[in-house]
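Recap from last week: sequence in, structure out.
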Amino acid sequence: MDIATFDILHTVLVFLWIVYVWEAYLSFRQRKMYQSVLEVPPMVKEVLDHETFEKARLYQLDKSNFGFWSGLYSQFEMTVILLLGGIPFLWRVSGDILQKYDFGEEYEITQSLVFMLLATVFSTITGLPWSLYGTFVIEEKHGFNKQTLGFYIKDLIKKFLVTQLIALPITAALIYIIQVGGDYFFIYAWLFVFVMSLLLITIYADYIAPLFDRFTPLPDGELRTQIEELAASIDFPLKKLFVVEGSKRSSHSNAYFYGFFKNKRIVLYDTLLEDYAPMNKKDTPADQGQEADNTDAAESTEDKPDEPKDEDQKDKEEKKKIGCNDGEVLAVLSHELGHWKLSHNLKNLVIGQVNTFLCFLVFALLMKRHELFTAFGFSTQPTLIGLVIIFQFIFSPYNELLSFCMTALSRRFEFQADTFAKSLHRAAELRTALIKLNKDNLGFPITDWLFSAWHYSHPPLLERLKALDKTD
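Predicted structure tokens:
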């Protein structure tokens, strides 16, 4: 049965706008929270002082307003691209470039890579003003951005090059597998994506992430000993323990683990550690990378123990410490290790691979439908374009539903990991750690229930505290 190509394109556009309006409505509900709740509610007075509450409110309000305009621009950009035939235009430009070098239509894989490169350049350029504003206006205004413009540009170029070096060969191989795989290509394509996923997970932290941030072993000491004892107590096969210098780009904090089988590593952001966060250290020279200079500064501070402490007292009042103490760090890690102990990462991996397999299966059923390509302005049926049309546009209703389900599942996993930390007698420290991290990251504790249910992969702070108190 033939499907009107006009109806396909406009059905896709209508659905995209329905999703946008829904997202805008949810953001409006949450933005009203930021605008209307001006005083610290009684339920969170023990969590936030008024000054921090107001900072968090203004930060989240600025982010919400910025998100509205950037989202509106993105929606109009996609609409214009689809209506004016931007995708087939870029495909033709890719072919024209190849023809200048005597590459004909038979070089579809090469043309696909040129198309990908041009599309990435376009999205990078159009997204650059929004990224710059978000980093150097919003994040800078609220004290989170630590990057210089030069560092930002260098980082952007490096990310672009690394991404292309990884994505282009993988895409070329995937297209080739689809073209030569026969009737069961979807099985081979899924296996290839699965293997590539495991490979990237394996090499990312060891070879890719260090290109952007400095990773150093956590020094021997009480904290390292306690972390190793914690890992041993639950049979977590910890091999390496790193601190990443996240403070050079942002004061936001994080912690994670990675690795397969008996080769696990834990990574702590320096902004998570109260004793390591550069923001907590006085007289640290700004924008200096030499360790000798930092050492001299530390020694000069130690040489002045008898100076009046009035100024120090004021400094402490004006600039509170960020990060967590050792007990709180252990509680955060107990939560993270709970994800491992309860096989949350493995479950997510299985769900992801089942989803990928089913998507390739449906793609195999749809990729020969000429009307899908015609609807988007194509007279031919390039494999890469088929992947874009089907995975990004035709699957969009399914993707929205899956995203909501995975968000709900993620929140359930977070509660379970909190309960696991409680079982290790870390409930009190985890509670204070969550409060501190919420303050450090200027999280606003009051959330609209519908916005939270749709967007938050982690439960809101108050829900987690109530759950900890309930199981305490």
